[in-house]
Design a protein that fits this description.
Layout (H helix, E strand, L loop, with lengths): L10 H21 L11 H22 L11 H11 L4 H28 L4 H15 L4 H21 L2 H21 L9
Helix pairs in contact: 1-4, 2-7, 4-5, 4-7, 5-6, 6-7
């Protein structure tokens, strides 16, 4: 049995917060009449490519963060805090949080922000700006900002090239699930003390 210490955030509060991000994204898309890229792929294709993309992205970022010359900060303290948060929830809640993050954050950052910027700038400026904002929202250290911005660039590029918001929603949700699974199952990979 895992120790249930860590998070001072209740399950309803965590779910409400993560779900609220999606509501903000939907409201922005609706109120600002932002065109959303959707339907570039069928649902089965979006799910398949999303899972494959998430696996490739997670493994790549995991390997890249091992290079101290590329990422100057030690991520172990951020991983310890994330571990302490995640260990306090059961798996159904963590899966739900991952799905809400995938859907909600992609509605906001790719559908809303990147979509809005795309109306006024070129596609790669929109991808870059939305990715930096995604990194800033996830900022806990410079290295974590770089990792989140890198993930944002991958997701933003996938959205731009595929024309499928569903693809990046699946990609993001599966990425989060894999990240939480590895962190909780193999905490020593991340320098986490259990």
């Amino acid at each position: 049995m895992r120790d249930r210490r860590g998070s001072s955030i209740s399950t309803p509060a965590a779910l409400l917060f993560q779900g609220g991000i999606g509501v903000v994204g939907l409201l922005a898309i609706w109120l600002l009449d932002i065109p959303v890229l959707s339907g570039g792929l069928g649902l089965t294709e979006a799910m398949l490519f999303g899972v494959v993309g998430a696996l490739a992205t997670y493994v790549s970022l995991l390997l890249l963060t091992r290079n101290s010359w590329l990422f100057p900060d030690d991520l172990s303290s951020q991983m310890q805090a994330l571990y302490n948060f995640a260990v306090s929830f059961r798996w159904p809640v963590l899966v739900t949080l991952s799905i809400l993050a995938g859907v909600g954050e992609e509605l906001l950052f790719r559908g809303g922000i990147q979509g809005w910027l795309l109306q006024y700038t070129g596609p790669w400026t929109a991808v870059l700006a939305a990715s930096v904002l995604f990194g800033l929202v996830h900022y806990v250290s410079f290295t974590y900002f770089l990792v989140a911005t890198g993930l944002g660039l991958v997701l933003g590029t996938a959205y731009q090239l595929s024309g499928s918001l569903e693809l990046v929603m699946v990609w993001h949700a599966v990425y989060d699930m894999m990240a939480l699974y590895c962190l909780l199952r193999y905490p020593h990979w991340f320098g986490v003390k259990t």
